[in-house]
Amino acid sequence: MIFKPLFVLTAALFLVSFNLVYAEASLYDILDYDVGYDIENGEILVMNLDVDSTSLIIEIVSFDDGFIELNIPRGLIDATFDDEDDIFFVLIDGTESDYLEINSADNTRTLIIPFYTNDQEIEILGTSVLSATPTTVEIPSWVKNNAGWWSGGLLEDSDFVAGLNYMITNGIIVIPPTEAAETVNKEIPSWVKNNAGWWSEGLLEDSDFIAGIQYMISNGILVI
Known about the structure:
By secondary structure, the chain is an alpha+beta fold.
C-alpha cells in the first residue's frame, strides 16, 4: 500500500503567505489539451510533455516566492495505482518538492505547487502520459532481489547504479531508448528508491521500475 505524504501546506497558506507582485491566469495548449493555470509571482515560459520520463515539464520565470495552480487533464498526464489516484512526484529544479492537490475530477486533477524566487523548472512526474507507446521491457526476476536490498539499505547507491549499468550494457535488462543527460548527477531522489522497494515486493509494475531507471539516465545519475 502506498501512503500519501502529509503536507503542512494549505490553500489558505498559499493565498496569504506571498507578497504578490504579478499574477497571470490562462490556458496552455499541449497536444490539443488545455492546461489551465494561475501563477502568482511568476510567468510560464513553456510547457512540455516528456514521454520518456512520464512527466510534464514547466519552465518558469519566478519574480518572487509564489505558487502555480494547475488544472491538469488526465488524458495528458496522470498518476494512478490499481485504478485509483496515486500521488504525483514534483521536482523543482531537480529537488523533490511538496504540493497540494485541491481537486480530483473525472477528467482533471488540480495541483497547487509553491516555488521560490529564481526557481526555473517544475517537473510533475506521473505514471502515464499521452502518446506513451507501450514498449516491451525485459527484467530477470532476480533483479527484484537487488532492488529490495538497495531499498532496504543493504546496497549502496553506487553499487546499485553500477549493477544497473552492467545489466543494461550487457543486455540483461532491456529498456526503451532514453535520452541521456549531458552532465553527471550522483543524487538519487527518494521516490526512485521507494519505487524500487515497492516493485521488489510486487506492488508496482515492471514499467514503473523502468521509469525510475529512465529518470536516472535522463538526469545523469546512471550513465550508460
